[in-house]
Amino acid sequence: MSVVAEAQRRRTFAIISHPDAGKTTLTEKFLLYSGALAEAGAVKARSGRRSATSDWMEMEQKRGISISSTALSFEYRGFQLNLLDTPGHRDFSEDTYRVLSAVDAVVMVLDSAKGIEPQTLKLFEVCRSRNLPVITFLNKYDRPGREPLELLDEIEEQIGLRPTPATWPVGISGDFRGVIDRRTGEFTRFTRTVRGSAIAPEELVDPDTAAAEEGSAWEHALDESGLLDAIEADVDLESFRAGESTPVFVGSALTNFGVRHVLDAIVDLAPAAEARVDAKDNRRELDADCSAFVFKVQANMDRSHRDRIAFVRICSGRFERGMVLTCDRTEKPFATKYASTVFGAERTTIEEAYPGDVVGLVNAQGLNIGDSLYESTPVSFPPIPRFSPEVFASARPLDTGKVKQFRKGLAQLDEEGVVQVLRDPDMGDSAPILAAVGQLQFDVFADRLDAEFNAPIEILSAPYEAIRLTDAESAKRLREIGGIRIMERGDGHLVALFESRYRLQRIEGDEPDLTLDHIIAG
Ligand code: G4P
Predict the structure, then answer these.
(1) ∠ at Cα 476 (475, 481), nearest 5°?
(2) What number does the ligand 1 atom closest to the CA of 25 have?
(3) Residues forming the annotated binding site?
(4) ipTM value of the model?
(5) CATH class label, 391-510
(6) CA 324 from chain center: how many Å?
(7) CATH of span 14-63+104-268
């Protein structure tokens, strides 16, 4: 098969949701429906069952959240689906944002009893601002919940995405019988299986039989669907691909109701891997020589190996294990002798990959997030946006004999993007400020410094409220003003930290010539 044909059968996506909305359950059911799992219940560690989650970090287990991202690949209807898992915790969002740069679509899972929960709104907004195609799954409809029409309003108002229901429920939440596919008018009736561990039996029922057997539930569903017809809330491929409208599916991941409809939508509606535009706005055609970019770096995933894996998304050409790629930043060659896919804690060596695929390159010492790799024709893909930090802290080694380890850990975890490490240009590593989008990043940082570098630290909150990018000339002036600290980021950029947002606003107003740029988000 040609590279283009291989790319066309790829669907690379992520699931985003508020913790507990059902992301893990849905992931598991995707695997069940694709045949990759014989029985549901294996993804999330349950007593006596195999754990396939990425449980390599103790903290992850303690908190019961998924901190590391995993890439799962599975076949469905002859298509290859690449699912990039994203941590579902608000406070660990930088990692999630980076994953979004490597996918072509997302599935947004909402708990239909709760709707959009404030903590995850930001994540949804990022998808919107990047025009990522979003498929919405209203989950947990087997339980009493909110009116689906009300949830549609909420999606439109809060995210600015126009909801276009693809399916509509028959039966109220809590008494869920099946869904009407609004595109074909077909009614799919489901039957529960025990804990949803097997595929839910589905029955296609014609409208007359449905009317006779489902009575008022059917009438109600038809009425509401008719209302949606009247406002032309129909699935529209063009606006979905442009990130303006979102096909909505109603279901229950737990009982498997509606899971197949979502999988079909990923294949039928979500875009295939397409030619990417590079930093100079040129298209890197799919059949050009191999190219990829690093969207995630993770060290010490496997304690016994002490390694560093760079996760790359293939953008063009055919990747073959063993090929030598060049890194655009360093212009150094990188031999891809050890390439793997990572399914939870398990690794499988990968021999070849195509646009849309994710490959974990092992022993990736010289590779950083945002680096591009190419086989022969040089290319640099656009940088992955960094997010404006919102919380700041200082870090101090608890054991003064471990300064060397502390420095090593600082450099490593900064490169991985666990936190952003800011250094005082005059003091180097001795009094770094850590900057992050969420507090949990500091905990992960401290935990890993201790566990992996044997350098326990103390994290103290630092009194800053805002950060701006600046330059050497403006820094000179800013240093004269109180309440501002000039620091240097890992990439050499100067930043100014402000103790008060109000003060920053005043300076921006009073001295418009100073360079005080926002760190762009999204
Ligand atoms: P997450 O990854 O988004 O955090 O959510 P997860 O799938 O772990 O689901 C959170 C809880 O919600 C789980 O219950 C799960 O069984 C339940 N759940 C998921 N989908 C549905 C659904 O469609 N209907 C109903 N009723 N529940 C659903 P738990 O009690 O926390 O765990 P468990 O004991 O079931 O494993």
Answers:
(1) 85
(2) 7
(3) 17-24, 85-89, 139-142
(4) 0.98
(5) alpha beta
(6) 28
(7) 3.40.50.300
